Amino acid sequence: MGMEFTSVGLDVHARSIAASAIDVHGVVHSARLAPEDEYRQVLDWVAGLPGEVKVVYEAGPTGFGLARVLQGVGVGCL
Fold first, then answer.
1. Beta strands 6-12 and 53-58: pairing type?
2. Torsion angle, CA of 53/75/19/11, rounded to 10 degrees?
3. Closest Cα to residue 25, out of 4, 42, 54, 55?
4. C-alpha closest to that of 50 among 27, 24, 26, 20
5. Structure confidence at residue 2 as a pLDDT band (50, 70, 90)
6. Of 14, 33, 38, 41, most Cβ neighbours within 10 A?
7. Contacts 24+ apart (CB under 8 A), 68-75
8. Does the pLDDT of residue 1 top 60, yes or no?
């Protein structure tokens, strides 16, 4: 049984976000994103990934704003 979603991990900091994903085809994607403009870069990057996307990240002092934004557009986020 294969993976049925793209799995994304984000390392969130105040000025940058390191993003990595493995998609439904086993392809690895990575990017360095800016947490500006209501996380527009993150949303655009996630939207470009194939299949259903599920995201995990550790919030630390940056809070849970990104989780709320992702959940608001229908992306599963823990």
1. parallel
2. -130
3. 4
4. 24
5. low
6. 33
7. 69/38, 69/39, 69/42, 69/43, 70/39, 70/42, 70/43, 70/46, 73/43, 75/46
8. no
Find the length of the chain.
78
* 8 A C-beta contact, residue 69 and residue 12: no
The first and second tokens of residue 43, run together, are 């949303």
CA angle 72, 53, 21 (to 5 degrees): 125
Query: Which H or E element spans position 26?
Result: none
What is the reported pTM?
0.89
